[in-house]
Amino acid sequence: MATSVVTASSTREKPRLSFWQIWNMSFGFLGIQFGFALQNANVSRIFETLGGTEIALYWLAAPLTGLLVQPIIGYMSDRTWSPRWGRRRPFFLIGAILASFALLVMPNVTALWMAVGMLWIMDSSINISMEPFRALVGDLLPSEQRTTGFAAQTFFIGVGAVVASSLPWMFTNLFDISNTAPAGQIPLSVKYSFYIGGFVFFLAVLWTVLRTREYPPANMEEFEEEKRRTAGFFNGVRESFAGIFHMPKTMRQLALVQFFSWLALFSMWIYTTPAVTSHIYHTSDATSKIYNEGADWVGICFAVYNGISAIAALLLPAIAKATSRRFTHMLCLVAGGLGLISIYFIQDPKMLLLSMVGVGIAWASILSVPYAMLAGALPANKMGYYMGVFNFFIVIPQVVAGLILGFFTKNVFGGESIYTLILGGCSMIISGLLTLIVHDADDIRLPADPVALAPESPAYDAPVQTDPRL
């Protein structure tokens, strides 16, 4: 007889959490996104300022480390328990300390190799904090609140990114701080933005660490035995990479969706600054005033799409309930793809804000809906592990972007970065269409899938005990 297990989708005993409990457990994402937004909007600018030309290649430093860091952190957090600090929260705090340090150092680098190395440290540290946050929603929230939980994270991501992306522009236009500097030096407006980001990152994550409580393992003896049996860093590495071959059906389908949507995002993050400054501001001189005005405006555009995502995140649960999570995600991704493609037709910088509306809608869905669909298909005792493996399909498209987008931009598109954004828009539309084939285990509109529910399904790869207190 098959061993009975409890997946995240079938654990119905978890109590519903209050508004403020969901608020507190999600608040740390405000700081995490401060870090990511400053990185995404300004690192290409820093590379160009320091004389870099192979921008996509330099960005490879972060994902190559992420391939190792993300699943290992998920694997380790599944096997961590402290009566005081819980399971996921120790990793929140460690990542916040390291990422805050990296944010303070990044704008003070003086050579290109230092900037590439600091991107590696910063991106890895941010992921140490971020990856367990995804698992926390699956740990604490019942199925019917999971879309709300991920939407709450997306709201804070949007708010944090709006402020962080706008900081260089605000320092220049509201506080009259210079956004230009001599060749090879980072402008003061960018430096001060990173300093603020470092402090906000640490304080926001600390709030979640101190204000959230986690459920202990249901059976401490079995938990300790499993931890002893699977202990060891290299065992974690082996298990993490083996997990890609044993993914549940829903996870395999979502992996393809994630690949194309994140390939589009990385094309945007890497190439929006050179595309906008060359295609709309008609300059590639990183020391010129007009270039830095364009780079600052890219920060505003990124702030707008993140602001739109914060608003859209509040609407996604209602739209998904009225239609389905698959249809909702498809609709949002198509809107984002059209937004990226529309940049080609724009000459007035202010019109870029309309393009960002579509991007923001897609961003809200990318950060919440796939994780809500995934959480229902995962075994509860491997939530962090599989969330980490799932992040392969964020890292892999980043590696692909670093390897091929530079080649396409230089050799196929004649150095015109705007065409790389069009390629990204097409990729996002493809990902939207692929969403329609995903099996969403928690969607009551779908007929029962005997394959997904069979005992031999990868979702049933280990027995799980439910906590009677949940």
Describe the structure.
By secondary structure, the chain is mainly alpha-helical. It has one domain: MFS general substrate transporter like domains (Growth Hormone, Chain: A, Up-down Bundle). It has helices spanning 19-26, 28-49, 55-58, 61-78, 89-105, 112-140, 143-173, 188-211, 220-229, 233-242, 249-279, 289-322, 325-342, 352-366, 369-375, 383-390, 392-412, 417-434, 450-453. Helix 7 (143-173) packs antiparallel against helix 12 (289-322) and helix 13 (325-342) packs antiparallel against helix 14. It is globular.
What string gives the helices and strands in order?
HHHHHHHHHHHHHHHHHHH
- Estimated helix fraction: over 70%
Give the averaged pLDDT, no decimals: 82
Strand content is: under 5%
CA-atom Rg in angstroms: 22 Å
Query: Could you describe the largest sheet, including whether it forms a barrel?
Result: none
What shape does the CA trace take? Answer: globular
Give the number of domains.
1
Helix count?
19
Under the CATH scheme, which class?
Answer: Mainly Alpha
Number of strands: 0
The low-confidence parts are 1-12, 446-470
CATH superfamily: MFS general substrate transporter like domains
CATH topology, what is it called? Answer: Growth Hormone, Chain: A
Structural class: mainly alpha
Between the first and last Cα atoms, what is the distance in angstroms? 27 Å
